[in-house]
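Hi all, long-time lurker, first post. I run a small reading group and we've been trying to get comfortable going from sequence to structure in the token notation. Rather than ask abstract questions, I figured I'd post a concrete chain and ask someone more experienced to write out its structure so we can walk through it together at our next meeting. Sequence below, copied exactly:
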Amino acid sequence: MPDGVEPEATPELTPTPEPELTPTPEPKPTPTPEPEPTPTPEPKLMPKKEPEFTPKKELEPTLKKEPELPPPEDDGMGEE
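-- Answer (accepted) --
Happy to help. Here is the structure in token form:
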């Protein structure tokens, strides 16, 4: 008789804790992937802007010397 009472009480306690742990981990993985894609594009844009600013500074001194040459041409046209 004692053997029949043990198997009956075991299956009743097993199905109860299982369904309670399943719905908990499901809603947690949803809000986690959202904040991850945000910090990824930020660091990628920063390193790309640095190399672009370096070559621009080299062109600045070159453009400043160009406007100094056109003035002499205006003098020649004014004399004619």
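A couple of things your group might point at:
The CA atoms of residues 52 and 58 lie 11 Å apart.
The helical segments are 2-13, 17-21, 41-65, 70-79.
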